[in-house]
Design goal:
This protein is mainly beta. The chain is built from two helices and eight strands, in the order ββββββαββα. It has one domain.
């Protein structure tokens, strides 16, 4: 995987049925076969289109287990406080995402929390 963008501001929320939503800033084009690759740790990769790879950076430890158990989530793209579009995204749970995060300038949640 190459050419990543990092989604620095995103929110993960759950509704009363424990369905997960991820809110991100709206993008230009409509997604094409979107999916999220996640290994249960600090980062996930959102494949919005075959050419667009977005890192969901520093996933809070409190939400990781719920995200790991999800088969799909609802992605909500927003412009300011308005919803541009929302759509289902399948989750692909893997043992380890094949990315050296340090080579693209990312740290673990623990490193950030401890100021390393």
């Amino acid at each position: 995987m190459t050419d990543y963008k990092t989604e620095k501001k995103f929110v993960v929320a759950a509704d009363e049925n424990n369905e997960l939503y991820i809110f991100i800033e709206a993008k230009k084009n409509h997604p094409d076969n979107p999916r999220i690759i996640y290994d249960g740790f600090d980062h996930a990769v959102f494949l919005r289109t075959p050419e667009e790879r977005i890192i969901l950076d520093y996933i809070n430890p409190e939400i990781r287990n719920e995200l790991r158990k999800s088969k799909r989530i609802i992605m909500v793209e927003t412009i300011l406080e308005n919803i541009k579009e929302s759509y289902y995204v399948d989750m692909q749970i893997v043992d380890k995402i094949p990315v050296d995060w340090s080579k693209i300038g990312l740290k673990t949640w623990d490193e950030v929390a401890l100021g390393k």
